[in-house]
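Notes to self after the call with IL:
- keep both proteins in one doc
- input above output, always
- annotate only the second one for now

Protein 1:
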Amino acid sequence: MSAQKTSASRTKPVSAVGAFIGFVGFSVLAGLLVTIGVTPAIAVAGVTTTSTIGVFESLPEYIEIGDLPQRNELYAYQGGKSVHFATVYDQNRQELKFDQISDNLKNAAIDGEDKRFFEHGGVDMTSLVRAGVGSLAGGLGESGGGSTLTMQLVRNIKMQQALELPTEKARLKAYNAATETSIPRKLEEMKLAIGLAKKYSKKDILTAYLNIAYFGDQTYGVQAAAQHYFNKSATELTPAEAASILAIVQSPNTRNLSTPKNYDANVARRNVILRSMYAQKHITEDEYRKARLSKPADYVHLTQPTQGCRASVGDGSQFFCDYAVKVVKEMSQLGATAKERAAAWRNGGYKIQTTLDIGLNAQQKQILNTYDNKAETQIALGATLDSVEVGTGRILTMAQNKDFDEALKSAPTSTSLNYSVDYKYGGARGFQTGSTFKAFTLLDWIKAGHGLNETVNGTARVVSPWTKCGQPDYTQFDVSNDSPGENGNYSVIGATAGSINGAFASMAQKLDLCDIETMAKNFGVHRADANPLNTYPSFILGTNEIAPLTMAAAYAGIANNGTFCAPIAIDQVTDASGKKLGGQAKDCSQAVDPAVAQTAVYAMKQTITSGTARGAQTADGTQMFAKTGTTDEAEQIWLVGASTKVATAYWQGNTDGKKLNLRHYSNGVNGTYAGVRADVWRQAQTPVNAAYPGGAFTDPSSTAIRGNSVQLPNLAGKSPDEARSTLASAGFTYVDGGTQPGPGTAGSVLKTSPAAGSYLSQGASVTVYTTDGSQASMPNVTGKNVGSARSELESAGLTNITISDQYERGSGSQQCKVASTDPAADATVGKDTAVTVKLYGTKDGKAPKDCK
């Protein structure tokens, strides 16, 4: 010993001291264990002090194997059946039972790491003393400083416990404590190993060790390692494969088989293990020779881990998977606090049955791939299709044109942002909804007692004042329409079909902006960034940034006779023991009276049949309603609609904040991006209708359609005073429109705006125009004899009348009667306008003999 010390002192004096301390330290531990009778009596001199025994006895002796982190499995539906589509875990591990692990693996572990495993009581004195010739701090040789499998299991358990702590600082501190090279740590490890050996069988300890050990490349446990490195189960490994896996355990970063550069290091340790297996007669000489001669390249078949939503099965399912995982982590089934839920998810073993219809989702993804090019370079184009089941809120689809990239290394064709959902669930901040938001003004209009046939002003103009939370609001809102030709009066049902901004501004003026906001909130509408909805007057036209899923769920609520159901993604959670914990609770509430919702649906059905969503009707004839939405610069385009069973929201738009008009960019298929939204929505909804057949909506009563509106009487020919009195009696306000050229008695009513017969709300203003009497209305004198015709024309105030000498062919009874006039009947003309009257003549068109 002294010679070794002298030699060492000339080259590495510090290491020599460390080696000496290491030897003495192990001697202390060995003597201590002898003293307390843990192992057979192997005397080591000078270490049996009572103080050392006291230190040892003061250490904890209890540790549990516990539940190891396992994989969480996600399931979707396909053809009505549950199918697995994603594996998500904190640690890539799949636990096996003792009988599921191959004998080659068990033997490789024992022969390579702990030959006397079945003989000692958790601590092996022979190995411990042998390890004492070197430094305790480094853990001599391949045995980790005399560590048994049980001691290694203790260390792995403590490392695992460290990884499950809530903060990075706490995790790092505990991990370092579990792996530090010190006598106190080794003492604790030994005592806990002794406790494990007393509490658990050798089978339990060996099984736990093989399930918990880290095998590099984010792979834990022998089953995950076998699948990852060899693409097979740990139940069927060859001696070479088993030894290669166990070769990794002492140096997982340098010996794992994820790269050929580690092969030599792995083979060196593998062959040591194989030699031990042969020496212990666990493999034959032929098996030993064959295994030693084998090369990793012969049996390594590296498979990429199938973990994470990026690897989920099903075209386009990745964004929904990511959303579902975030939702699960909020569910009380996993724990009462965020800390408890996070720990439970890390421990894993859950089976999550989601609501996703993976087949429909794939079909919608393909539609987006076709019509919303993920590789578009002229604009930052995003697009989604989201379908929600009516009456439950279950999310059936969540398709996106971009590919999923959770690693934040977004290529032009991929993104980490889930455009369908709120910021907290996907990172996107929502998009202005345009006129799809008008549904909530329409609903509040009907709720307030107004009718669909009521006439409102649709002209683009500066609109003010408003009512906001019961108080006047004098904000001036310059309302523009989508097309210059959209002006004048519209019925509400017509304005809905045509999406006339000016008309909805007129409707909102008769309501309270806060009531419209409340209506939207009742249907679950909220900003994607979690800020309050802005309620400037412009918000009625969809200026808030809202997630597509939110709009789909809102329209599902309208389709559900006004009962809104919050969107849910999880049907069932089953824990590792097989216990069903339940899914997201169905959360439905009556947002508005069913009759109001039915009336709104009736109006929005016209959007598909004759309005801005023409082309959205599916060939199956399913009754549906919809509303389109286009922002001012057409940088965001929407179509949201529903059958009685499923609502689908289609959104496409700029994702970088720019306002590039989607009407100006070709989709490369059949038109501009914005121009084919109805076609895209129809194609998306067609398979949805096949899978979830819808029925007929309940039509509203005629009373509901009319509301409390009153029909405007015909005031033509009345004096202004008479008109004023009649309007007051009907509850309308008289507005003097002045005098215009027209027929009739000068000063009498010529016309009104809105026109006679229009339905108006109580208090509506009616503009009355009087005539100056300078014109006449051509009477209809066709078929009358020439004398009567002349008399009637003169009575109308027409003075310049000529009987044409040209005749129309006529029968005997028609002769000498008026065939036509120029100007024609009902035309408004000046009183001195030349009027030509043509008569019927003979069958040859000649003049009869006795016409006067």
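Protein 2 (the one to annotate):
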Amino acid sequence: MNSPAPTPQLNLEHSTGSLSLQGQPLRFVNLPALLGGNLQRWPAVLRLLLENALRHLQGDERAAAAQALVDWMETGCSEAEVAFQPGRVLMHDTTSTPALVDIAGMRDALAEAGIDPTVLNPGLPVDVSVDHSLAVEVYAQPDAPQRNMQHEIRRNGERYRFLRWASQMLKGVRIHPPGTGIMHTLNLEQLATVITTEERGGDRWLVPDTLIGTDSHTPMINGIGVLGWGVGGLEAQTVMFGMPTMLRIPDVIGVQLIGALPPAVLATDLALTVTRRLREIGVSGEFVEFYGPGVATLTAGDRAVVANMAPEYGATTGFFPIDAATLDYLRATGRSNEQVALVEVGAHALGLWFDPTATPRYTRSITVDLSTIGHHVAGPRRPQDQMDHGDTAKALAAVGFVPRAVCEGALPRHAVAIAAITSCTNTSDPKLLIAAGLLARKARALGLKAPAWVKTSMAPGSPAAASYLQRAGLVDDLAAVGFGIVGFGCTTCIGNPGPLTTPVREAIAAGESLPVAILSGNRNFPGRVHPDLELSFIMSPPLVIAFGLAGRADVNLRKEPVQTTPEGRTVYLRDLWPTDAEIAQHLAQSAEPADYRRDFAIASQNPLWHALEAPRTPRFPWDAASNALRRPPFASFSEGSQLGTFTAWPLMLLGDDITTDHLSPASAIPPDSLVADYLVARGESRNDLNVFASRRGNWEVMVRAAFHSKTVGNRLHPNLPVAHTLHVPSGEVQPIWEVAQRYRDAGESVVVLAGERYGTGSSRDWAAKGQRLLGIRAVVACSFERIHRSNLIGMGILPVKLPPGVHPDTLALQAGDRLEIHADPAALLPRGAITVRVLRADGRIDPLPCTAAVETRLEVELLRQGGVMPRILHQTRERLAFAA
């Protein structure tokens, strides 16, 4: 912990300043005057929280927030809460759909209570990017983007009509059609202002651009100095409807960067290093901020890659302050000279300009020497498991796969099933795609191609990528080795890779291969990329191509050749890897700032999207026959608190690292699953069921999808089928939702027990909604990932933290054991004690002194009211009654 610096009390009477820019008078929160010589001792993220509080709060609340932040500077930590009011909300189609379905359901509830439903509208601008539904059905063909788009619109037409209804009927909601890019890339290239102006009390104010996003990788925008982070859709709803997001003033981890990256080492390598280092020190929900002279050596593109992986290293943010690299990025992506000038002047005036020589006061700090970083990959099951790119064979050997059969012509033991340049993480930075294109050019010149069993694809985050790759002369080279563009969306990264190749499917069925996915994404949890693939490695785009050409994941590319040419020449990675000079030359050749606005405008006119007709009624007309959209039962006045004293059966008994992909998968719906049976019975084709994420508007599908993963590891009973559990009183094994219904019909409560990092992964609110519909009243775990913990509370489910040293394994629960939980609504406090007792089937009682994993008073109120939606409905009715 850094030594504390003396911090004077703040004189808030003189906290505002004024300036004139381009002939316009502007007021602003004058942090340099307010903090004086301590300005650079404050972490930039705390300066932004202070500015936000001073601008939005009044009177005693304003003074209390400022004092709490000053007190943090004395100790480096705080238990105090602060309100944060972002300027906008960012969503994607599969998180916005359930949120907007909730709003449609709440409009119905208001109308049925005699209240005009049109009073319910978001109070902040909401941008929705339709990017999570594009699947790689067609690849390695010139018309792949068009054909994949056609498949997407056909499969999701009903849901997309609903989104168009929302954009027409809900004020402030703007939908960006399929093909406009991935939300975080779109945010970087189109939406972010970095510094902007707003009208307040008749004056024009200079303010930082801030946001929250319903995707865990929202912190990518931190790479250009915009404070934003990922929240669940439920927390976003509270912010949309006028409530600030309340947070305990965060611990801030400083990551000092020194030195510079070696030649040919890429931002991906740095991001994986940071992920490993921060997970090693146990980061879990803290704000992370980068500082030191090494920051100045990184481009904004480099920084955005590192910032994107904040959830993978356990952080809420991965923040890089504003400096000249930010301005360079704004110019490169076509922002106006006036906007760039506003950012430069505003960042200095607000006290947000980065000083590479400063050493701010942090809770903890680590140092990363950029010059020591090499080519890395991470896997095969977690993004923090970083290794040298030559060590994949060692990692796979540890898996211990033994083929059931080995015949002539069989696939490699760990064949590359998928090689995908995918995800905003590593396709938003032109440098990474240019590097991939140059490696492809060299491979093409040598006659190399990916083996037939490898499914190859490239899906950039922005349509502008096609323009700069074309201008660099690399599009044909990429296509020639199998990595032609398949569209602009999340694709493989989010679990939409389309079907595996026939050789891979046959090899899996025969037990001759345990195939591996190779991707430039951000997550490699088992089953995330494809339900039949347990193993994945994350790496930079050029390495993806190299492994794709090799065709096997257990290859040591430091020593073994990538491939042999038709003439018999062995080709090594060093023969293909581009130099920094080559990359720089092609970057300069390809740069054209006008691409970004032009290509986005063209993509926004997507004719397939605009041909969709949507209802134009204040209330959405639900269709009882729909398999995509159903009115949600929890969007009602009648939903109440689940707190109290109760005795519960364990519905699921789980271990560590239960991800949101375990809790509510996003990938393809298996045609032989119970969910498929349900949909087929309602008229769907078993061979065209789309992905789980496309059904998030239908609660009846999603409750059946809860815990639908063959790797979930339910310990209540050995060898349970997928999505099944034990009904303890009868001893019968049944589908989870049927068991939950049996407990509900009997008037019995249920809970979940789990180990460390429960809910790691994405922001999907259905990971919590499914649990509420199953009747789960509490989740008792060793630790929780931040966003999922918030989503549980948003659905009225109490997260309970086990005492140190206690784990579901050490509890040794047996069939018949139950949990007695005392959660008195009146006594519940943030991080307060929760009395839990294990009632053993043999009559023994074991006390467990647990803690409420509740951080703020607002979260306590949400639990008392039953969750976000009851709170919004009751507040809307009370507000209208007060106005009347």
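Annotation: The chain has 31 helices and 32 strands. Residues 144-169 form the longest helix (26 residues).
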